[in-house]
Amino acid sequence: MGYSDLLGLALQTRSPQQFRRYGAVGKTTVTVEMSSGQRVDLLDFETLPGPINIGDPEYHSPRPVFIPAVEMMGHLKGFAELYDEYELDFDETFRDITGLLKIRRRTPAPGYEAVVRQIETQALEGTVVFDEEEDRYYLTRGDFKLAMTLVAEGLRKIASLHTLLVNGSIKQGTILFWDEPDANLNPVLMDEVVQALVAVARTGVQVFIATHSYIFLEEIADETKKGEVRYFGFEKTENGVTVNGFDTLPELQPNPILRQYESLYNRQIERAFAGNPPQ
Fold first, then answer.
1. I want to staple 184 with a disulfide (CB 3.0 to 4.6 A). Which of 84, 107, 141, 153 is the partner?
2. Residue 233 falls within a domain, yes or no?
């Protein structure tokens, strides 16, 4: 979402910067190729946990936030200490998100109170509370208090978004990457998550989402206006992976999600009319 912001960032990139995260598989670099043929490395994460410099020395963006597909809200207790002490087969994005979720702040950044309230009343139906002594989060609903380890994973994902908004990790200028927010999420809550993400994007947060859910994509298309979202399809070819961008969901190609739905529909039609073809 917020494609125009992404384009603005790319146009301000004047000198190569590098995106590095060190983990079990080594270095990762994200490069952008302009229409002119110029290639630039977009983000420099070496200065974390401070702001990142995107080409222009006078342009600074708040620390980017990456929410992995594996939910970590219910696994905070002792994870950071264990990760820092021992070599684990988790990449640094897991360590990063656990650190961000533990930042203490009583109120969200200005302008995000309404989004936080929406998440609490419509999605969580409660509030998220951190117990300092037990070093874990709880979901509270009135007098009822439930440890996050016992809360459904989809709700823990929503609680993570809520917490990152409350503690100021997500604010105007933040680049938010969320890998499969729909994974293990109750389908009836997808519209609530999409509404929250769209509201956040409209405040000046650059949001990147990777999803395999047709429902989630349709919810985004239904909630956004023309120009607010850009859809990208990735396709593996003999020359590597190609990326195609489109302004509307029906244009998206390749669309393996829709292709699989069509395959399922055709198989169901064939079974329904087996031995009794339509006239």
1. 153
2. yes
Q: Which residues contact 127 (CB under 8 A, 6 or more apart)?
A: 120, 139, 140
Query: What CATH number has the domain bearing residue 233?
Result: 3.40.50.300
The span from the CA of 217 to the CA of 249, in Å, is 8
pLDDT at 194 over 70: yes
Average pLDDT of 63-86? Answer: 89
Has residue 269 been placed in a domain? no
Range of the domain at 234: 3-251
Q: For 107-121, 146-160, 185-199, which range has the lowest pLDDT when averaged over its residues?
A: 107-121
Report the C-alpha gap between 192 and 169 in whole angstroms. 20
User: What whole-number distance in Å separates Cα of residue 76 and Cα of residue 96?
Assistant: 11
Q: What are phi and psi of 147, to 5 degrees?
A: -60, 140
| Cβ neighbours, 10 Å, residue 235 | 12
Q: How many structural domains comprise the chain?
A: 1
Between the CA of residue 217 and those of 46, 66, 222, 258, what are the distances in Å? 33, 20, 9, 11
Least confident of 11-15, 99-103, 258-262: 11-15
Residue in the structure block whose two tokens are 């000046």: 204
Give pLDDT tens digits for 19-56. Answer: 334 444 445 556 666 666 766 655 544 444 444 444 44
